[in-house]
Amino acid sequence: MKNQKIEKVFSGRMKLDAKSFYEKYFKSLNIPEDIVIDVKEILEKYLDADLSRISDEDDFSKNLSFFWKFDSMADVEIILEIENKFNIKIENNEALNTTKLKDLVILVWKKIQDKNDKNSNE
């Protein structure tokens, strides 16, 4: 059932390896490649899905909302894993307002930058 929904959403899209995914959607934003790849890998792990055809504009509240029907706690697990991986804190309202993959990657990058700025000012 989940695989059928994934196939329907991603139908007609080319699979991208990690580097190609980064270059197509995030390189122009000057976000480090490892951050983008790590966020995507966390999503794949907790959603238990091949996301090689995902785009930066895919929306977890719209065309990808079916993922939550298969694991209602996946969103919490994803945020916790991202917080642990990058040593950042994502507030509940930030998580709720972050629905697109692009928004999530940008939020993580901003949090890392803020943390680094704060540490360099101390």
Q: What's the average pLDDT?
A: 94
Backbone structural class: mainly alpha
Percent range for β-strand residues? under 5%
Principal-axis shape equals globular
Number of contiguous helices: 7
What string gives the helices and strands in order?
Answer: HHHHHHH
Q: Gap between N and C termini, in Å?
A: 51 Å
Query: Count the strands?
Result: 0
Largest sheet at a glance? none
Low-confidence stretches: none
Provide the descriptors you would attach to this structure in a database record:
122 residues; 7 helices; mainly alpha
Account of the 3D structure:
This protein is 61% helix and 0% strand. The protein is built from seven helices and no strands. It is globular and about 50 Å long. The protein starts with a helix and ends with a helix.
In short:
The chain is an all-alpha fold and 122 residues long.
Secondary structure elements and pairings:
Elements: H1 2-10, H2 18-25, H3 33-47, H4 67-70, H5 74-86, H6 92-96, H7 101-121
